[in-house]
Fold:
Amino acid sequence: MLKVERISKTFGKGSINEKLAIDDLNLTVNKGDFIAIIGSNGAGKSTLLNCISGVYGIDSGSIMLGDINLTKLPEYKRSKFIGRVFQDPLRGTAFDMTIEENLAIASTKNKSIGLQRGLNKKERELFREKLALLDMGLENRMKQKSKLLSGGQRQALTLFMAVVSEPKLLLLDEHIAALDPGAAKKVLALTDEFSKTPDLCTLMITHNMKAALAHGNRTILMKDGKIVMDLYGEERKKMTVEKLIAQFDIDNDRMLL
Ligand SMILES: Nc1ncnc2c1ncn2[C@@H]1O[C@H](COP(=O)(O)OP(=O)(O)OP(=O)(O)O)[C@@H](O)[C@H]1O
Ligand SMILES: [Mg+2]
Structure:
């Protein structure tokens, strides 16, 4: 489904700060894959997702999503196929708009701009039903501004908005890192649910190694802009956090939490 072939990304080319953040990286993601990505600070995890979503152009290589060649597509065109959630819950929703307005925008993201409008009664009912599945009472607050929501509620809504336009790819960059443990658990459970959408591919960056082994079907470890481990199947089932640390010389405090 997603084929990232030999991509490299250098920041500050020619300057004294030149940094090769992604180094000749290959990644094939199959339909339905839910991949957890771990790696120490500066390993290139966020840069990889930013290259896939088109925030950054790449130096070389290619990125294909099914038949679509993303390599040179601008970010706004790629966003039709890609849902994203970031660490900061404030980043995902329009603060001063109601839950309903936020959803209306999210759901028409993959349609032409001329079709953007408010929700009709039928759509409102459909969203109400879907929001109820989040189990946060948001279905009764659709006319409230999203700024009134807690961090966990807002992140759950952001996740919901990211999948409501039925993207082919869901990119999550430490999306639970800023939440309290209870909210993090809930949003992670929702992530598990949403990732089961047929044909959707999910890439989730996390610094929590335990979560990276327990959620999804594959775990990838990045180091110095490369993928140094790609675990799935039986091998993954047998892996433990302790073994990971010993085998890959992991010395990152944040990852050990
Ligand atoms: N916009 C940028 N300009 C210059 N250098 C950058 C930029 N973004 C990232 N880098 C550098 O590229 C390298 C990879 O950064 P990246 O943010 O991808 O790491 P990461 O694995 O996401 O780390 P973290 O766990 O801290 O989020 C780092 O050395 C970083 O300083
Ligand atoms: Mg990062």
Summary: The longest strand covers residues 19-29. The mean pLDDT is 91. The chain has one domain: 2-97+168-256. Residues 45-46 surround magnesium ion (ligand 2) (CB under 6 Å).
